[in-house]
Amino acid sequence: MGLKIPANLPTKRFIRRRNTMTLTITSIRDMAQPARSPGRAAARRILATASILLTGGLLTASPLSAQTAGEVFRVSLEEPVQGESHSGVGNLRGWAIATDGIEKISVYVDGVYAFDAPYGGERTDVGSAFPDVARSAQSGFSLAYNYSELDAGTHTIRATAQTTSGATLSSEATFTVLRFESSFISDPQQVDISSAQCVINGQQITLIDALIEGRATDITLQWRTATQGFEFLDVR
Length: 236
What we know:
Blueprint (H helix, E strand, L loop, with lengths): L10 E7 L2 E15 L6 E15 L2 E11 L4 E7 L5 E2 L2 E10 L3 E8 L2 E6 L1 E3 L2 H6 L10 E7 L6 E11 L4 E10 L13 E2 L4 E5 L2 E9 L2 E10 L4 E7 L1
Parallel strand pairs: 6-13
Antiparallel strand pairs: 1-2, 2-3, 3-4, 5-7, 7-11, 8-9, 8-12, 10-11, 12-13, 14-16, 15-16, 16-17, 17-18
């Protein structure tokens, strides 16, 4: 593909699928820092990991984690799910760990600060993966979030973790919102599927002419493993 990789990179790994190449680079650098006393120097070894995606000639990089030697700092936004559709009241969740400890998780919607997410939820899976990081088993953040408060269409949510020492790291997802006319339907009488037709096509279920707030609406649902339930795939 014409991509030249310097021969002196400490670690390089390629995975090539069709027109997409993923290159993971891990590099270690010595960065001199001022010593506490004159005539002495302290060296700090920085470990940076990045995932580089090359598709159609476009080269981009996004951080997966940030860590100094012997230290760990990671964050993962698990819901909303990247590239999926969301509607109604659902989960906004993920996890974050840091050797220094996590101070807070800030959530941004379409680039604008929205709120801080509750942090400290039970995550035994993360604790098992990072047994040497204190409180990694209580590293979850989660809350109920009404995706229908957003306009129908594409949106991005970013979770930014901040450590007790002030370092920050983010994880984000771009997804599509499907919604009815109202962001919250409080009257159950406004939902009537008694006369709707049900069509099953593979793993999808479609209700045709369901009456939602007095309007004939077609709703397609599909099983989503991440949420362990049926989710809206299309509303029209």
